[in-house]
Amino acid sequence: MKLIIGNWKMNGNMDEKNFLFKDISNTKTKNKVIMCLPFTLLWGDSFGVTLGAQDVSNHENGAYTGDISVSMLKDAGVKYVIVGHSERRTFHNETNETVKEKATLAIKNGIIPVVCIGETMEEKNAGHTTAVIKKMLTESMPDNGEFVVAYEPRWAIGTGVTPTTSEIVSAVKTVFDALPTPMPILYGGSINANNAKEIVSIPYVDGLLVGGASLKSETFLPIIKSIN
Length: 228
Ligand code: PGA
Fold this sequence. Notes:
The protein is an alpha/beta fold. The protein has one domain: Aldolase class I (TIM Barrel). Strands 1-2-3-4-5-6-7-8 form an 8-stranded parallel beta barrel. The chain binds 2-phosphoglycolic acid. The site of 2-phosphoglycolic acid has 13 residues, from strand 8.
């Protein structure tokens, strides 16, 4: 069984959620589909689709205006939470240390964190991909419990450019070798219906993290169907 995680980022409204979720629930798949939505959409009917969030506070509760705690996510029925997405690391200066705190708190509260890592184009061009991935993963992952790793090269996110098969093999093998016990490893970055099947067939790839193409039935359902 593969994991197909949709990440809506800062897009969508309740009508669009209901529309897509109904379509997902009517699509036969042997894989698991998880939708990570903006906080305001984490309520109402889920039509049997597993709910995820895109971020969580690294604090349990208290005076953190604007933040959302893991117990709030749990209360809303969330089962997975993305932590350390490259956009959080870039636009909110999140460090490996903060990401690890978030992942650890999520696990403590029964929510599975999806820990994101990935190199920049500069790091790739300098030949540092393996070292960067290893460091990000070992510093960001929780010490115990069940989690998911998403390998998302930063230069592949939202660009329409994907790594070669051998680049993905090498990166996910690095992740696999750095994990103390096997955890699902996803690939993310410019996934669409034309490349999903091939990428998910790469050794050590247990699923996909899909951004832009997860927003609409026309682009997301063909991805789900292509990897059945
Ligand atoms: P993308 O985003 O599929 O739009 O490239 C992936 C992600 O940021 O998770």
